[in-house]
What we know:
alpha/beta; D-Maltodextrin-Binding Protein, domain 2; 2 domains; five-stranded mixed beta sheet; four-stranded mixed beta sheet; 51% helix; 13% strand; disordered N terminus
Amino acid sequence: MKKYISLFLTLLLALGLVGFAHAQDDDELSGELEIFSWWAGDEAPALEALIALYNEMHPNVEVINATVTGGSGVNARAVLKTRMLGGNPPDSFQVHAGEELTGTWVVADRMEDLTFMFEENGWFDVLPEDLLDTITYEGGVFSVPVNIHRSNVLWYLPETLDELGLEVPATIEEFLAVCPDIQAAGLTPLVVAEPWTVNHLWETIALGVLGAEGWNGIWTGETGVAGLTDVYATFLDVLECTNIDADAAGLSWQQATDRVIEGEAVFNIMGDWAAGYLTTTLGLEPGEDFGFAASFGTDGIFMWLSDSFGLPLGITNRENTLAWLELMLSIEGQNAFNTLKGSIPARVDAVEAAMDEYNAYLLSAADDWAVDVLVGSLAHGTAANERFMGDFGQTIEILLSTGNPQAAANAFAAICSQAAACGQ
Length: 424
Ligand code: GAL
């Protein structure tokens, strides 16, 4: 009996020590942590859930949630640039894995190499190769991915399709064939919003026209002007089926999604943050209250992007930031965030740890991610650098003002060579 009592006491002591060490850990961190992103308003809940977890673990740290509103980071990136160049970096900031990270901040030597964290936490073993490649530059790893989003998703309302007697178009041609009937019924066939959403539509149409190989060929220079001319020609036809000349420019991506939900538009092509909006913000049930499919002609291809956060050089709250990054790529952090965001975890072992918390859309995205052909998104920083992306919109302006696909393709090629983005 004595033996058991002393064992019990030893155990209590050990637990006490662990508890003490834990409390001390928490106490060791204090001061501030500034997280910079564009996840404001409707886009905020997932980030807020992660911050709440951080607050529980590190109650003495004051988290400053610095957001700059504007879908796809159109405004945030400009503010970030001023801060980074002015020597006032946030402790950590949202940046797309891929060229947006490496081609901008890593080449400029503004980010700390995180290889040591990846080794300490075993992260090299739990992230997919494609993703690891996009956050690696000259042997160093430069950001911590919080998720995987899919860009090529078509959203619709089953009732609207039923009322119009339509099936989900599998190809661009099938969509173009039903477009006049939808217009005749007084609805917008495909709703777009502010300019970045038109860039977003472009990449999914390009993928539908070129396929995965042709898409990747853009970035190696193999696809060339002929392939791009086909893309712009088809894109022009698709734009005829949108509200681009009506009120697109004044709509946010959420307002475009609303048009589908309200039955004024039949389809919207948007990344799966739309699933986050539809489920987390609007409380709708995927598969029942709204439908989803791969965008026209892209079944079996997953155009991906990843939101990630890094460690800028020269920040004051380095330890607090390391704890933030660690939480972000923990199984707990990945699940707290992704079950609300519309994205799936970057870690391959996270979904299985909380299967019940993932809805039907997210489970289907996770299944597709495991088997589909993967290609990187242009509109969200994976495929091309910021210089290229900054100018890309001009190709669409040229297309719209001249109606000439070849002129737009030529402009694309010129921007490619100026930004060294297409393999030259
Ligand atoms: C993407 C970002 C997503 C979502 C979306 C709309 O660029 O990766 O997480 O925020 O913009 O703002």
